[in-house]
Amino acid sequence: MNRLSPSRATRWVIGMLVGAFFAIPLISTFLYTVLLKDGGWTFERWTALFDPAASAAIKPIWTGLGNSLVLAVITVLIVLLLLAPTMILVNLRFPKLKPFFEFMVLLPISIPAIVLVVGLAPIYLQIGRTLGTGTWTLAFAYGITVLPFAFRSIQASIDAADLRTLAEAARSLGASWPVVVLKVLAPNIRQGLLAASLISVAVVLGEFTIASLLNRQVFQTALVVVNKQDAYAPAIFTLLALLFCFLLLLIIGRAARGNRKARS
């Protein structure tokens, strides 16, 4: 086993290459926003985001960001309140349906977004007539697109925990099924739920095709609109969005470590 494991130097080289792969584009984008043509530095482009005089030019970005955050919250609720309980139910009560359920949940990842929009267009025509054409309705489509990613995160935690034994023990003590799911099973798959939530937020903030073709204003579509007038503001907001996702990742990692300490 030791012969097959990479040396410390090899691990450092691989880590540096992977780190450079992610760091170089981010550093280049940051330098693009602060460097002047004469080689000087300025942060006026960053402070201009909060300048009332320049607020009109970047107002679509703030509007799109607000819409995307609302969509992220609704999409996370879909994952936590619909997908996760259904996965628990399938694993505990209907294990024979697990292969079919997994196939159906993973199917959206094999369908191109533009093809998905063609199928969703008639559905959204009816949704617009009944629920309106608000941007929040995109959460139904986003809930479908995040299914494969959220499923893998939650299923990994389910496989690591013996849900059947925990559920049977809780039921034998008189706990109802809502109590079993919320107070017994959910804490044991918390890491998977948090990871699925993070992935859902990242997908929503980065999605463009569905929102553009369905004519909804979200963060990514607003960046394209503002980029035609100001190339620096979209780059700055992109960095801020990545920073936001990174902070969420740190919070999830800390929560997961806290969960492991509690178990130990």
TrEMBL record:
InterPro entries: MetI-like (IPR000515), MetI-like_sf (IPR035906). Pfam families: BPD_transp_1. It is found in: Cell inner membrane; Cell membrane. Residues 65-252 form the ABC transmembrane type-1 domain. The chain crosses the membrane at residues 12-35, 69-92, 104-125, 131-151, 192-211, 231-253. Its main location: membrane. Coiled coil: none annotated. Keywords: Cell inner membrane, Cell membrane, Membrane, Transmembrane, Transmembrane helix, Transport. The keyword Cell inner membrane applies. It is a multi-pass membrane protein. The keyword Transmembrane applies. Belongs to the binding-protein-dependent transport system permease family. This is ABC transporter permease. It comes from Microbacterium murale.
